[in-house]
Amino acid sequence: MLNTYKTILVNKKQLTSDVYLFTFKLIDPPGLNFIPGQYLIMKVPKNKELVSRAYSIASSNTIRDSFQLIIEIVPQGLASNYLVNLKENDQAVFQGPAGQFQLRKNNKEKIFLVTGTGIAPILSMIKSNFQFSIFNFQLFWGLKNYKDIYLFDELKSSFTKATEDKQFNLKICLSREQNLDMIPEPDRKYFELGHIDVVFNKQFNNEAMKQWSNFEFYLCGRREIVDSLKNFLISKNIPQENIVFEKF
Ligand SMILES: Cc1cc2nc3c(=O)[nH]c(=O)nc-3n(C[C@H](O)[C@H](O)[C@H](O)COP(=O)(O)OP(=O)(O)OC[C@H]3O[C@@H](n4cnc5c(N)ncnc54)[C@H](O)[C@@H]3O)c2cc1C
């Protein structure tokens, strides 16, 4: 059963030309419980009706009285127009939480292949009670250009939690840049040129890494990209049951 949440927008921060971070405070009921990876359904006014749009929760589930969403504003989008015009202290209604895109409890190495705002549920997983000491994890985040990156410092600091015996790896894959010259030298190790699948192939070309049954893949982003990444993994003989995905 989905709950209905009355909220107010307490903070709206523009992260890039078309991506915003929204923070909503819960009014009634005053708290939200969710599993990292889940989404909420926003009720968007259209004429005299309300239509639904899903948004993955990007904040930690240890924070109960508010939540954050990372949303790309698409031209002429119904919810996009509503959100871009929503002002601090305005009310908004959500239902949820919903969705099965959740970390599985096992000690398999987790590989996240996400594009654009598909980073949102992964941020929630990382910021919640992520079991950093239990498994290795690798995050490949696909964006077009360097200017499209946001919350980089936050991500980087999560990756410094690596321990000696656990491997954490962050690769931001820039598909439309020609070189990485604009990136400050200390940060360059986090970046690669090319689409996610190309960067992933480069990283995993070592035969010893191909113990696929020890890996679990989490895909998130626009529908076409998730479908194509899923086909790419299947073509590499990754068992379907090791692929978990959320299509936007
Ligand atoms: C489970 C789930 C979780 C989601 N989580 C997020 C999230 O965390 N962050 C987020 O930004 N979105 C997320 N989405 C997508 C979101 O629900 C909306 O589809 C998106 O915000 C567009 O809605 P809209 O009403 O503004 O556009 P619509 O009015 O639905 O569409 C307007 C036009 O824009 C096109 N369009 C739709 N999306 C895009 C796009 N991304 N780029 C270019 N054109 C597009 C449509 O095809 C249409 O032509 C999620 C979707 C699902 C199913």
Q: What's the pLDDT, averaged over the residues? A: 91
Question: Gap between N and C termini, in Å?
Answer: 22 Å
Tertiary shape: globular
The class by helix and strand makeup works out as alpha/beta
Tell me the number of strands.
Answer: 12
Rounded to an integer in angstroms, the radius of gyration calculated over CA atoms is 18 Å
Distinct compounds present: flavin-adenine dinucleotide
| CATH 4th-level superfamily of the largest domain | Nucleotide-binding domain of ferredoxin-NADP reductase (FNR) module
Low-confidence stretches: none
Number of domains: 2
> How large is the share of residues in beta strands?
35-45%
Give a verbal description of the structure:
There is one protein chain. This protein has 248 residues and is an alpha/beta fold. The protein folds into 2 domains: 3-98, Elongation Factor Tu (Ef-tu), domain 3; 109-247, Rossmann fold (3-Layer(aba) Sandwich), CATH 3.40.50. It is built from 5 helices and 12 strands. The chain has helices spanning 78-85, 119-127, 152-159, 196-203, 223-235, and strands at residues 3-14, 19-28, 39-46, 49-56, 66-72, 91-98, 109-115, 137-143, 168-174, 191-193, 215-221, 243-247. The strands form 2 sheets. It has a 6-stranded antiparallel sheet. A 6-stranded parallel sheet has the order 10-9-8-7-11-12, sandwiched between helices. The model has no long low-confidence stretch (mean pLDDT 91). The chain binds flavin-adenine dinucleotide (FAD).
